[in-house]
Amino acid sequence: MQASFERTSWFPIMLRLEGARVLVAGGGNVAANKVQLLVPTGARVEILSPTLTPELERLVAQGKAHVTRQDATVENLTARLPGCRLVYLATSNRELNATLSALCQSMNIPVCAVDAPEVSSFITPALTTRGAVQIAVSTGGAAPVLARRLRAKIEEIMPAGLHRLAAFMQHSREALRTQVPDSAIRRRIWERFLDGTGGPLAMSGETQAAQQELDRILSEGSAKTGEVWLVGAGPGNPDLLTLAALRLMQDADSVLYDNLVGPDILNYVRRDAERIFVGKQTNNHTLPQEGINAELIRRAKAGERVLRLKGGDPFIFGRGGEEIESLVAAGVPFRIIPGISAANGCAAYAGIPLTHRDCAQACVFITGHARADGTLNLAWETIALRSQTIVVYMGLTLIDQLCARLIEHGLPTDWPAAIVERGTLPQQRVLTGTLSTLPQQVAENHVTSPALVIVGEVVRHRVLSPTT
Ligand code: SAH
Questions:
Q1: Which pTM does this prediction carry?
Q2: Does residue 258 carry a catalytic annotation?
Q3: Boundaries of each Siroheme synthase central domain copy (predicted)?
Q4: In this structure, is residue 7 part of a structural domain?
Q5: What are the tens digits of pLDDT across the range 337-347?
Q6: Which residues form the domain of 61?
Q7: How far apart are CA 210 and CA 217, in angstroms?
Q8: Is the CB of 317 within 6 Å of ligand 1?
């Protein structure tokens, strides 16, 4: 698995500021921006500046902010620091801001020197607010313009009535908590409410109708029934997740995944879902499938919504069938969501069509995984045909044997063949050659798993987009 996220030293939290003293050094427009953000929190905003913008003067006159008309010197700031929850440094003098920031940090008071993340101990994200709903976007100070762009996009998609929905949910929360003590069931009730007509009703201010809908869901009974969702996650690139997969990934209580499901994909699973790695190593296919089946059943019977997340499509060399059979036998309800299989993903991202009117009227998917005796025992006479494309899953380890068998059974030694390593991912590599060259190319280029072999004349029809 490749690490996909850069480290960041910034940790987002929501800070309660009501009644807390917040000091703002500076009285210009930059300070005014921050004061505007702070006032709605109910903080006691204290400005340290000999002069104020008209906007700030107005806020002071209204009693929403307080001012000490002094220069923001070390001495004056020191006098006011004790007991402050936060400090904003917004003087026009960057050096002074840096000095004052060091002073605050020496007293362990969180400080933000505006536009100078390198000397700040906290930074202010770009904010989108709809009542109690707040979305904060941060780039860790790296690209404020990008953060503002993203915020603009979020603004566009956040429904205007979201604050009403949040208020409705907050209002009903206490009552629901007493009626339904189990938090997992409560979550499901809310999900049903939001997925149905409840959300739109509450957003448009039809509180009574929204309440009726909530009561209706409650009266439906909320027996905690578990189920298993067998979901294909595609070949690795999150762009290739289906909408259904994404939604179930967001709703699951727990997720059982194997090694084809990388961190980029897992990133889309609900944060609180329990993650269980049940990876099968390439050379260790004997890992007990029964153990996985039993775990799926145990969790579902305990009421969990269990996501069984598989690379590619669950029904193509994914043992999805076996898992479902055991669920059926145990009487556990399930859903199956297909995924883009490695063949489709790799072919598309490598520019190799799987069928072609001129040369490939059929396409077979075969496994290159050996039997216990180390041989590839397949119906070669139906596979080694010139008129079809052969896609080999798990074909890397026995690539020599594979190419040799195909030649033995009638394909020419110079028959086109390709291998796609880490298909669809940014690290994708494609090697093209022939049945007689491919094994050596694989060895020389140190191709590693996952890799998919494509054999047939379609490889000659490989298309690459002209660079833009
Ligand atoms: N159910 C999966 C296949 C599981 S078998 C699917 O439908 O794709 C595992 C094999 O799939 C690997 O050995 C490799 O041959 C292939 N594979 C899966 N993801 C791949 C990827 N991103 N690039 C290349 N091959 C991949």
A1: 0.69
A2: yes
A3: 130-156
A4: no
A5: 999 999 999 99
A6: 21-124
A7: 11
A8: yes
